[in-house]
Amino acid sequence: MILSLIRQHPRLSLAIGLILVVMGVAVVGGVFFISRVYASPPQPLPFQHNKHVAAGASCIYCHPGAVDGRVAGLPSTAKCMGCHANVQPKDPADQKDIDQLIATWDAKEPINWVKVTKFPGYTYFNHRPHIAAGVACESCHGDVSQMGFAQPYNLNMGFCLHCHNQQPPEKVTRLIDCATCHR
Hints:
Helix content: 40-55%
Largest sheet: none
Order of helices and strands: HHHHHHHHHHHH
Number of domains: 2
């Protein structure tokens, strides 16, 4: 039946075939694009958030700038060595990662972490009011206790406005004002 339809309508069959090929390319391209956008960027050292959270490290310990500053900051080699000079890993397989850290420390090199969360230059974001308001880090960054390596999170205007619109009415007007986040 299909073969006879193809013989009777070759142009229609060609058009359907082309549409299927284009759709296939779009699906494969979309999957590739999404996997690239939401993939963790390669880091200079293997840092697994889940293992550090399980060991009791708080977000603020490694990212102290979030408490009183605009940028959370990324831990220095000295910050990492503050623990790793004295702590043995629970999993002996992690020792090779710690050895990389120690080699970086011994070479007196900084750790050039690659930012995972980036905002466009026309936006303004400050961690301080969010921390002061009791917003949990997980609200915006996801549950890092379940992540090996930090994952990019879909932080866009809609994401922020969704939360800002759920605040008490006396705060909403100020929080959804364009100038709050765009300067």
